[in-house]
Amino acid sequence: MAAKDDNRQGRDGPRWTKLRLARVASLASLHSHPFTRTPGIVRMLRRLSVLFLAAALCAPASAASPVDSLDLTVPQTPAPVAVEGRERLLYELHLTNFGSAPLRLDGLSVLDADSGAALAAWRGAELAARARVIGARDAVLSAPLAPGERAVVYLEIDWPAAAPRALRHRVEFSAADAQPGRVEGAQLIPAPAAAQSLGPPLRGGPWVAVHAPQWPRGHRRVFYALDGRARLPGRYAIDFVRLDGQGRKARGDADLAASALGYGAPVLAVADATVAAVRDGIEESERISQHPRHDLDRAAGNYVTLELSDGRYVLYEHLRPGSLTVKRGERVRRGQVIGELGFSGDSTGPHLHFHVSDAAVPLAGEGIPYAFEGFRLLGHYPGAQGMGKQPWQPRAAELAAERRNEWPGSNTVVEFAR
User: Fold this and answer.
1) How far is the C-alpha of 2 from the C-alpha of 296, rounded, in Å?
2) Which pLDDT belongs to residue 140?
3) DSSP-assigned beta bridge partners for residue 87
4) Residue ranges covered by each domain of the chain
């Protein structure tokens, strides 16, 4: 039985294919022999040639190529947003292994779909740091993508002034006992930038705009699956934390929520809008160290959602209980006070969580880009280290202090009009 299995396996290999092709060649050479020039023999040889050629071409390869086993998708079409004078695209590429062999991701390029020119590219550790396997405890994609696994690659690219019509993606990969492969797909046409810029959500400052695309548990990388669909509501979310001139975020006992410099600050409507959703009554802890974890339903704490005239929704979360001044269905004017900054919900300290979405419920929508009409850029923190305890780094000399129609960059320190 083993010998028969070996023979059957051999017939699927390249030697058997070469033998078939050799027979076809032998049959073809018979056409020139005098004995084979009779019409009946010619017709028979032609039929045999066709049969042997079809069998040779249909023979399976010795090792299946993994190219067709990798699925590429971009579930949420991006739109450009301005950051410090540059247009940026933020979006996610989902990679799913539909094959039977583990695939190691070796390279990723974002291409102009028409010219094929590369707009951005990542390889090795730089690519692995941007990728996460859904549901895996290990945050970094350090091992091959196993059969059935899905990885999300978080992308941020500069959008050139001469913007391409469309983008596509090239993924290079390798598998054991197979030649390296590559696949191109997930073509997309970016959406137009939002036409309506927003007013300030808070007064004065300094405020540090806390967000960073590389943080494993930051808003940018946390999906929520509700109502049968996974979404990324915090794609462009910012946590605004008030600082003093020395970069400190609290006075006196920093463990007391009320000691935070931003606690109780008025929260403002960023546009003329309709109140789409309101929740109040979620209590706060007096001390930050005693604040419990909250389930998903209560994670946003007390919040207000405003529906803009262009169909976007603006969400303000973690508001102080009892401070909300609006109700659902009410019309508000830009600059109107709608509540106060607080410490309700799942929060590590008093701050205003702010994002724009395509749905009124905090975790049920996709985060979409937005820009503020104006703010003053003071500087930035290079990371979380020292934030709220030490002075920030000053603004780069080549950057103008007054910013217009932009989204605040990662961990920038800004000041709004009073």
Assistant:
1) 58
2) 66
3) 82
4) 2-58, 67-188, 207-415
CA pair distance 81, 85, nearest whole angstrom: 10
DSSP conformation class of 198: B
pLDDT of 261: 97
Residue located via tokens 């399976």: 60
Tell me how many degrees the CA angle 389-406-360 measures, rounded to the nearest 5. 90
Distances (CA, A) of 96 to 70, 154, 167, 170, 228: 6, 15, 19, 14, 19
pLDDT at 294: 86
Using CB atoms within 10 Å of the CB of residue 243, give its burial: 0 to 12 exposed, 13 to 18 middle, 19+ buried. Answer: buried
Asked if 390 contacts 66 with a C-beta cutoff of 8 angstroms, the reply is no
DSSP 256: B
What are the phi and psi torsion angles at 386 (to 5°)? 85, -10
**34 upstream amide cis, omega within 30 of 0:** no
pLDDT mean for each 10 residues of the chain (418 residues): 36 37 39 44 45 40 57 96 95 94 94 96 91 76 87 94 94 87 94 94 97 88 90 96 96 95 98 98 94 87 97 98 98 98 94 97 94 97 89 95 97 95
Whole-model pTM over 0.85: no
Phi first, then psi: what are they for 279, rounded to 5°? -140, 130
Structure confidence at residue 40 (pLDDT): 52
Q: What is the CA radius of gyration of the chain?
A: 30
Q: Which residues of 158-184 are buried (b: 16+ CB within 10 A; e: fewer)?
A: ebeeeebeebbbbbbbbbeeeeebebe
d(CA 167, CA 165): 7
Q: Which residues contact 5 (CB under 8 A, 6 or more apart)?
A: none
Task: Look up the CATH architecture of domain 207-415.
Answer: Distorted Sandwich (2.70)
298 contact partners, CB below 8 Å, separation of at least 6 = 282, 345, 346
- Which CATH number does 67-188 carry? 2.60.40
* Helices 14-30, 39-58: crossing angle, 10 deg rounding: 160
Distance between alpha carbon 8 and the CA centroid of its chain, in Å? 47
Are 409 and 209 in contact, with CB atoms under 8 Å apart? yes
> Interior CA angle at 101 toward 169 and 66, to 5°?
45
SS3 88: strand
Specify the pLDDT at position 169: 98
